[in-house]
Design brief:
Layout (H helix, E strand, L loop, with lengths): L1 E6 L11 H8 L4 E6 L7 H5 L2 E4 L4 H5 L3 H14 L3 E5 L1 H14 L4 E6 L8 H10 L4 E4 L2 H9 L7 E3 L6 H6 L4 H8 L8 E5 L9 H7 L7 E5 L5 H10 L6 E5 L13 E4 L8 H8 L4 E3 L5 H4 L12 H13 L2 H18 L2 H13 L7
Parallel strand pairs: 1-2, 1-4, 2-3, 4-5, 5-6, 6-7, 8-9, 8-11, 9-10, 11-12
Length: 367
């Protein structure tokens, strides 16, 4: 069986725990090719043991779905004659969907959907409902699946395969606690440290740390790992609030999951999520997690004590107070409960098995 996976770019911020890679690992033993529309392939070929194909398309050509770019991908697909096409995110799916009705009617076509609201825009919904009727959509969480069903996608066309991370890989590659804290600028003797990982964008809700911590007498240390448009603004706001010694916007780190060892707890105040990989990485690392009940987060944090309302600084403040005052035994109880949920529902073996069955066609869905 020949499998082609199409992505807009390779994820250069992580190695080994990226789900683009895990889908192809699920197909070991079959012929596998990884198409990358923009950018280089790095060492993916060596790490995955498959062929990588780079197209060097401009971001503009991808954004506007230019005919010349579509034809370039079509030429390669017709040469490779895949039995299965897997796409991640919307633009690569559009490239393949334009071509599929004419040239790939018998090819099994799978689109992985990573976010709630992916088809909120009417033109996207119309496109998917007309040109992707013979596709299978894989939602990264049940919340994403339910969002699609609410937009009248047939239930037979949408399945949920929850995101996952490789627990052993995550644990084996942790930095030491001392090294992680030193690199992030956290005092070695800090009693309780809260951490989070995510792009510095409004949807991640990082500003609520500022609002929650302003009136706390002795807030815990909070370290935010991530680059993005709001990084400088958040650093300035922390300084103006005299919190920069406690609220540390550390910037981005490659393989950021390796810094989980620095944290006593992980807190995610997001406004919207699909099913956050960073939260799974925290739990896999043995760090208890707390978050807002958005997207797939409640599928991970099944105990209501672990969640707090979004856009609510007071609720976040209470979570931070709880973490600061909790005994080691209380945090350990949370850690053990969450790890059981992780191993029962989000193991990497389950993820690979589900994708392999889907690609091989042993999971049947009507067109």
């Amino acid at each position: 069986m020949k499998i082609v996976q199409i992505c807009k770019y390779r994820n250069s911020t992580v190695e080994g725990v990226d789900l683009f890679e895990e889908v192809l690992r699920a197909a070991e033993g079959h012929s596998r090719k990884f198409y990358i529309l923009n950018g280089d392939a790095g060492d993916l070929s060596d790490r995955l043991g498959c062929e990588t194909v780079t197209f060097d398309l401009s971001k503009s050509a991808i954004k506007h779905i230019r005919l010349s770019a579509v034809l370039t991908v079509l030429k390669r697909l017709r040469h490779d004659k895949p039995d299965v096409i897997v796409t991640h995110r919307f633009k690569p799916a559009v490239f393949a969907a334009w071509l599929a009705p004419l040239f790939f009617r018998k090819t099994r076509k799978i689109a992985v959907i990573h976010n709630v609201g992916e088809f909120k825009k009417p033109r996207r919904l119309i496109f998917a409902r007309t040109l992707m009727r013979r596709w299978i959509f894989v939602a990264c969480s049940e919340a994403v699946r339910q969002d699609m069903l609410s937009r009248n996608f047939p239930s037979s066309q949408v399945i949920a395969i929850p995101n996952s991370v490789d627990e052993k890989l995550v644990r084996d590659n942790q930095l030491s606690r001392e090294q992680a804290r030193q690199d992030l600028g956290i005092p070695a003797d800090a009693k309780r440290v809260v951490g989070t990982i995510g792009r510095m964008r409004p949807v991640k809700g990082h500003k609520y740390f500022l609002e929650a911590m302003r009136d706390m007498e002795a807030p815990p240390y909070v370290a935010v790992i991530g680059d993005g448009e709001l990084l400088d603004e958040m650093r300035a706001a922390a300084r103006e609030s005299n919190l920069s010694h406690r609220l540390i916007f550390a910037g981005g780190r490659k393989n950021a999951y390796r810094y989980m060892a620095a944290f006593d707890a992980f807190v995610m105040p997001s406004l919207r999520e699909g099913l956050p990989i960073a939260m799974l990485e925290a739990i896999a690392s043995g760090v208890p997690a707390f978050g807002t009940p958005v997207g797939g987060i409640p599928e991970i944090l099944k105990n209501r004590k672990w969640v707090f309302p979004k856009e609510d600084p007071e609720a976040l403040r209470q979570i931070l107070i709880h973490i600061a005052n909790a005994t080691d035994e209380q945090l350990e109880e949370t850690r053990q409960s969450q790890q059981k949920i992780f191993r029962d529902n989000f193991s990497i073996d389950q993820y690979r098995s589900r994708f392999r069955s889907l690609m091989e066609g042993t999971v049947q869905h009507s067109d």
